[in-house]
Amino acid sequence: MKKIALSVLVASTVALAACGGGAANNSAAADVNAAAANAVETMNQAAQDMTNQGAAVANEMNAAAGQVQDAANSMTATAANATNAAAGH
Questions:
Q1: I want to staple 29 with a disulfide (CB 3.0 to 4.6 A). Which of 1, 6, 13, 47 is the partner?
Q2: H/E stretch holding 13
């Protein structure tokens, strides 16, 4: 609904400007366009921030998975050593 209202506002101010609207109308259209551009830029930055945070989380999870694998390898080696010791090797 907000997009529709914004579209109507932009269209009406552009139409007024095209039909010889006064400086105030032109200024309003410019203000609306600037506000919309700022909103888009803010959303793009937020999306980039979220992407960066997602990558950081993925990196942390990969590091944790590596640590789990190291622990599993250590446990396997310990079990093999215990088995060999019990077998008298």
A1: 13
A2: helix 2-18
